[in-house]
Specification:
- The structure is a single chain.
- By secondary structure, the protein is mainly beta.
- Helix content is 7%, strand content 36%.
- Strands 1-34-35-36-37 form a 5-stranded mixed sheet, with no helix packed on it. Strands 2-40-39-38 form a 4-stranded antiparallel sheet, with no helix packed on it.
- A hairpin with a 5-residue loop joins strand 9 and strand 10.
- The protein starts with a helix and ends with a strand.
Length: 584
């Protein structure tokens, strides 16, 4: 044997023996940073805590199951709002649309951002605790690449990723616990909503109404990600509602997507979800009412069964997604208390409904912005009488108000039990046209079959508004107008008598006197705000939090409106950040 080879073999043999004996120096294992005390002391989120959250916590995107977007904290008031200043700012490192709500549990803040990320932050200081980044294929189909928040339950954080995968993370470490494939992304299904945890289940829906999906809500076991039930919002032949669709296979690509988180009635164990447009956009290509598109559906959380629904405009041809769920608030009408559902719809109508242990009853509907499509509503059912001249079709152009962007898009309203008012981020005077063309389905591709334009109503001097309506009288109380901007700002109401909102292209975060509508404070952030504000308390001090980050949808909106409103603001920078404010 060659001497050199023999020597090499002997050296390797000796080294192997020494390794076995533990006498050689091995690479040191990676040093694990000690877990911060705030994470060691993390409190599990129980079903009882979700039902009755502590005043200082913000455990879900709208804080409470009723969807009010209301914090009872009252330290910050119109009297001291002038001293509201940034306590800290956290740059997310991501651009595009930041639409999530900061969720806070015992001082730990969880934020989801575009680019498939979840971040845990010390809410006292703005110090990052951990960051999760989901590896996603570059070919992911996600025309609206955002995230509207996370959900908490037990010791987990639940995140709906754009590639239609539900992710469960360890709340203390950020480590992935399990994933569940919700739908096939290459076929146009993607997710942007925050999951809803209710009745011991994690529920999600999927975006993709412009891509020929078949909408659904699905529920999963929070312990292991096993699917428990799936309820489609477009019925198959033979299922209730299937008679409202044409015969054939159109139901397979009928739309009715679910891309905003539902609200929940714990007493009835019913979740209320909103659904989007039918597919394709032109109703004359899918004759019939097309249940359950453009509807609120009441789903039994235990079984997934649809127990009731209200369809706002049958055979939708205007792209008026009604994905925003109604808030649950009891209100007065004609001397009686109604167990209410209140929905500010994209179709330009404010809908007062009644919830039961199943069916949804119509009470009242009225326009809150210019609306020239509905000539009247049926007094018993609320079904609109549509002006046929205002309904577009295949090869038929029609103009209508509000535009296909709606009188209010997805950003949620807020309700204050102190003022008994709801607060609406509205867009007035914005009208549009649509004309349809034949559409054919290709998986993952556009399935709208329509071309749109926008225009301002005659004599319009503004677009964006914040409106306040009293729920017991059904009357508008005050309106604040934005002269040179639309409004895409989710609302927050507080026990201190304030209403907070962003949504304008001046990059400002605003506060209004909840009773009078007076603008009492504003602060310019680094970018436009389409995030959902929250309020929480740490060490006896109240904070207000919101995400900034102007994204693809807001950019497109602003570019089109700049052509309608001469002298508008310049393009808004996109950098994402978490802003936390406190009175100094």
């Amino acid at each position: 044997m060659d001497r050199v080879l023999f020597a090499l073999m002997r050296t390797l043999l000796v080294a192997g023996i020494l390794v076995v004996m533990g006498l050689t120096q091995q690479p040191a294992p990676p040093v694990q940073a000690p877990m911060p005390e705030i994470l060691k002391n993390y409190s599990a989120v129980t079903e009882e805590r979700l039902r009755t959250p502590a005043d200082g916590d913000w455990l879900m995107i709208r804080r409470s199951y009723d969807g009010w977007g209301y914090s009872p904290l009252d330290q910050i008031t119109p009297a001291n709002i002038s001293r509201l200043q940034p306590a800290w700012v956290f740059a997310t490192g991501v651009s595009s649309g930041h639409e999530a709500a900061p969720v806070v549990n015992n001082g730990v803040m969880f934020v989801s951002t575009p680019s498939h990320r979840v971040v845990a932050i010390d809410a006292r200081t703005g110090t990052i605790l951990w960051r999760y980044i989901k590896e996603v294929d570059e070919t992911v189909v996600a025309p609206h690449p955002t995230s509207r928040g996370v959900a908490l339950y037990g010791d987990k954080v639940f995140f709906a990723a754009n590639d239609a995968v539900l992710v469960a993370l360890n709340a203390r470490t950020g480590e992935q616990v399990w994933t569940a494939k919700v739908a096939e992304n290459k076929n146009g299904y993607y997710m942007t909503l925050a999951p809803l945890v209710a009745g011991g289940k994690v529920m999600v829906g999927a975006s993709g109404g412009e891509l020929g999906v078949r909408g659904f809500v699905a529920a999963y076991d929070p312990d292991n990600g096993r699917e428990l039930w799936r309820t489609y919002t477009v019925p198959a032949p033979g299922q209730p509602g299937s008679e409202t669709w044409p015969k054939g296979d159109q139901w397979k690509n009928g739309g009715a997507p679910v891309w905003v988180t539902g609200n929940y009635d714990p007493q009835a164990n019913i979740a209320y979800w909103g659904t989007g447009n039918g597919g394709p956009w032109m109703g004359d290509q899918r004759p019939g009412d097309n249940l359950y598109a453009t509807s609120t559906v009441a789903i039994d959380v235990a079984t997934g069964r649809i127990k009731g629904h209200h369809q706002y405009h049958p055979n939708d041809s205007w792209d008026w997604d009604e994905v925003s769920p109604p808030i649950l608030v009891d209100y007065q009408r004609q001397g009686r208390t109604i167990k209410g559902l209140i929905d500010v719809a994209r179709d330009g109508y404010l809908w007062f409904l009644e919830r039961t242990d199943g069916p949804i009853n119509f009470v009242e509907g009225k326009p809150y912005v210019k609306q020239n499509v509905f000539r009247s509503l049926d007094p018993k059912t609320g079904r609109p009488d549509v002006d046929p001249a205002r309904k577009p079709g295949t090869g038929k152009s029609a103009d209508f108000c509000p535009s296909h962007w709606g009188g209010k898009n997805w950003p949620p309203i807020a309700f204050s039990p102190k003022t008994r008012m709801i607060y609406i981020p509205a867009n007035e005077n914005l009208c549009g046209t649509l004309i349809g063309r034949p559409a054919s389905y290709t998986p993952g591709s556009s399935y709208t079959g329509a071309t749109s334009t926008l225009y301002l109503a005659e004599g319009a001097d503004h677009i964006g508004e914040v409106q306040a309506w009293h729920v017991d009288t059904g009357q508008r109380v005050w309106t604040h107008t934005y002269g040179r901007s639309a409004n895409w700002g989710p609302m927050l109401a507080t026990g201190g008598g304030l209403v907070f909102s962003g949504g304008t292209n001046d990059r400002k975060f605003h506060a209004f006197d909840a009773a009078t509508g007076k603008l009492v404070w504003e602060f310019p952030t680094n970018s436009g705000i389409t995030g959902q504000p929250a309020s929480f308390m740490i060490d006896g001090k109240q904070y207000i939090a919101v995400l900034s980050g102007w994204g693809v949808d807001a950019r497109a909106m602003q570019a089109r409106l700049n052509r309608l409103l001469p002298g508008n603001y310049p393009e808004v920078p996109e950098g994402g950040a978490v802003w936390v404010f406190a009175v100094k």
